[in-house]
Model the fold of this input.
Amino acid sequence: DVKVTQSSRYLVKRTGEKVFLECVQDMDHENMFWYRQDPGLGLRLIYFSYDVKMKEKGDIPEGYSVSREKKERFSLILESASTNQTSMYLCASRRFTGAEETQYFGPGTRLLVL
Amino acid sequence: GQNIDQPTEMTATEGAIVQINCTYQTSGFNGLFWYQQHAGEAPTFLSYNVLDGLEEKGRFSSFLSRSKGYSYLLLKELQMKDSASYLCAVRDWGAAGNKLTFGGGTRVLVKP
Done:
């Protein structure tokens, strides 16, 4: 079974804090993704990574950065958290081969920025 | 860019059938996915269509018409545990990394 884990299920931070969200997958997948999910807006892609040390901006990268030093780990960084970054953050991974390859999601991190 | 539309909410009765429609506009269609997401949980993969027609998987079926930019997910013999959000997602050849773009999701409420 594919397993994608995220470091925290719930997180409360203050405005201006630096926040790290960690995601680990155990299936040797090349591609990894970070999304945020907000009511009425659906899942929106923040950043993704093709492979180690490779990263690409998604649809809403502003205010975020990422790090992929090891294949199994993809970190999302909020340099200075703001209240509009309160959201559910979902990590996903996918094998690179095959047109029908699907993404597998982690359980999500619900972040509250006060 | 891509535009994906699906209804916000649907209600159905246990044992009945519900059809969730999804329309999309994309420049380089490369597959359509349906995911199920229970409240507070991660989305899980349900189905994939890249060619026109119907794909059946037990109680769930998914249909695609590429010429119409249209798909639907059909849920038969509804059970209470089917109450969840259903997400339509489209993959685009032109998008970097073959990334998926998701619709807003359809919340399905199954009543006894």
Summary: The two ends of chain B are 41 Å apart (CA to CA).
